[in-house]
């Protein structure tokens, strides 16, 4: 059985199997508003392979991280809709 | 035969400014471009409105044009993203600080605002610059903008019954009697033709000494406030002057939406239009020497483009040396955005025999022939 990783999404604790990317953890947690566009519109994952930047979120205080390219890590803090 | 007073080849920011100024003076104008408005060098450019002082003629053109930009600023639509954020020239050492003082005096005696910053004032102006820089020079009236939108605005600003734009219309040759010959053989007559084709201008005017000088840019995600001015290293003045070797310089720009543009690079003889990672790496390493936190930021795109460069770093504006029906507005290298408005105005002045606000002789295309003879 896969090891479990604990992180927080917008302050809410979430547990996922290790090897899960942040975008998948966000989807499992029911998040759809990953970021906002220049005009303030909600954005979420599109390409899922690191090209489109639509799934950017804030990870451990660092803005604009591509959630589809980042693995969940123990204690990670993820914020969306910024 | 279909015709017009002035045929402009090239809908970059320079061609658009020339077309707009001629149409606003009452001439009928057709603008041709193989692509869209502002799709070549204009699209690849940073969009820095900057007074430069490599020569008195360069200063005259860029300071005149900056004044025209400032006069126009209130009329510019939001999508031009015009921001008078100023240029901050950064001095890393005492030698560069001496250059900052020289530039400050050069501007001051010519009536332009310029302010020397010591190390503490520089830190206050741009807290994300690395500690230990010697100081800087603030030119508060310089600006930044989004060039393709400005080119579009120029065309739209002209009386629409006087100007026609033909997108996707390749000009194969300039007719020596005026007018152009299109790729499909169609001939359009014109009283005179303006070759404003930038890097493509030598293809239409044989022997024109305009060479492509490649540059790279990177744009970041949005980090509002990370930088506040267009920041350029004074070392740029040494590196950008090299006419033979590839060079990089620290040159960053804050965009109105919080993004940052990171430059710059210069390459002669590079024909490949794509991004080259070797020089891109050098460029970013140079930028990170000045903005140490750069490595923590996310870049979203990089691209390359070509500047149309002349041997003496001045553009060609006016009738070509060999044919009074073929005019030139090209060769602006990295100053086409800045100089576009002045170029359009000076060209229209000459076409209409109006007096010009600054002497036009330094930009005369005939000088390249004289130079050729002198060195011949």
Describe what you observe in this structure:
The complex is a heterodimer of chains A (82) and B (376). By secondary structure, chain A is mainly β. Chain A has one domain: Ubiquitin-like (UB roll) (Roll), CATH 3.10.20.30. Chain A has one helix spanning 22-28; strands spanning 4-9, 12-17, 35-36, 42-43, 56-59, 62-66, 77-79. The longest helix of chain A is centred in the N-terminal third of the chain and has 7 residues, at 22-28. Chain A is globular and about 40 Å long. Chain B is α/β, with parallel strands linked by helices. Chain B is built from 11 helices and 18 strands. Chain B has helices at residues 13-24, 41-44, 56-72, 94-109, 119-125, 147-157, 201-204, 236-239, 277-290, 336-351, 366-375; strands at 3-9, 29-32, 48-49, 87-91, 115-117, 135-139, 143-144, 163-166, 171-174, 180-182, 187-195, 211-220, 230-233, 247-254, 260-268, 299-309, 316-319, 326-330. In chain B, the strands form 3 sheets. In chain B, strands 1, 2, 8, 9, 10, 11, 17 and 18 form an 8-stranded mixed β-sheet that branches. In chain B, a hairpin with a 6-residue loop joins strand 17 and strand 18 (326-330). In chain B, helix 1 runs parallel beside helix 6 (147-157). Chain B is globular and about 65 Å long. Mean pLDDT of chain B is 94; it is low at 372-376.
List key phrases describing it:
A: 82 residues, mainly beta, B: alpha/beta, eight-stranded mixed β-sheet, globular, disordered C terminus
């Amino acid at each position: 059985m896969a090891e479990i990783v604990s992180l927080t999404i917008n302050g809410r604790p979430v547990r996922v199997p290790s090897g899960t990317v942040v975008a998948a953890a966000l989807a499992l947690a029911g998040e759809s508003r990953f970021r906002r566009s220049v005009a303030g519109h909600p954005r979420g994952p599109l390409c899922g392979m690191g090209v489109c930047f639509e799934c950017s979120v804030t990870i451990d205080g660092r803005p604009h991280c591509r959630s589809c390219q980042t693995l969940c890590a123990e204690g990670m803090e993820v914020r969306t809709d910024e | 035969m279909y015709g017009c007073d002035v045929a402009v080849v090239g809908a970059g920011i320079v061609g658009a400014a020339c077309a707009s100024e001629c149409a606003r003076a009452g001439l009928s104008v057709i603008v041709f471009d193989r692509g869209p408005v502002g799709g070549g060098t204009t699209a690849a450019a940073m969009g820095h409105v900057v007074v430069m002082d490599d020569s008195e003629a360069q200063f005259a053109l860029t300071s005149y044009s900056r004044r025209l930009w400032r006069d126009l600023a209130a009329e510019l639509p939001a999508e031009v993203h015009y921001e008078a954020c100023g240029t901050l020239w950064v001095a890393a050492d005492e030698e560069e600080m001496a250059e900052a003082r020289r530039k400050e005096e050069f501007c001051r005696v010519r009536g332009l605002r310029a302010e020397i910053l010591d190390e503490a004032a520089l830190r206050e102006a741009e807290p994300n610059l690395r500690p230990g820089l010697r100081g800087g020079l603030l030119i508060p009236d310089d600006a930044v903008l989004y060039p393709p939108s400005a080119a579009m605005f120029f065309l739209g600003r002209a009386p629409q019954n006087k100007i026609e734009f033909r997108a996707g219309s390749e000009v194969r040759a300039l007719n020596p009697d005026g007018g152009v010959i299109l790729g499909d053989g169609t001939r359009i007559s014109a009283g005179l033709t303006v070759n404003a084709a930038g890097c493509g201008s030598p293809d239409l005017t044989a022997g024109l000494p305009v060479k492509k000088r490649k540059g790279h840019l990177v744009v970041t995600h949005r980090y509002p406030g990370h930088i506040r001015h267009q920041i350029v290293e004074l070392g740029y003045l040494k590196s950008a002057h090299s006419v033979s070797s590839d060079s990089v310089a620290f040159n960053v720009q804050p965009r109105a939406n919080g993004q940052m543009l990171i430059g710059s690079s210069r390459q002669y003889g590079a024909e490949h239009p794509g991004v080259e990672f070797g020089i891109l790496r050098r460029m970013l390493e140079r930028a990170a020497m000045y903005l140490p936190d750069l490595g923590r930021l996310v870049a979203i795109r990089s691209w390359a483009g070509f500047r149309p460069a002349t041997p003496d770093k001045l553009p060609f504006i006016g009738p070509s040396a060999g044919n009074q029906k073929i005019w030139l507005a090209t060769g602006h290298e990295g100053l086409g955005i800045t100089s576009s408005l002045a170029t359009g105005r000076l060209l229209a002045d000459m076409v209409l025999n109006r007096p010009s606000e600054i002497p036009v002789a330094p930009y005369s295309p005939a000088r390249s022939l004289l130079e050729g003879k002198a060195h011949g």
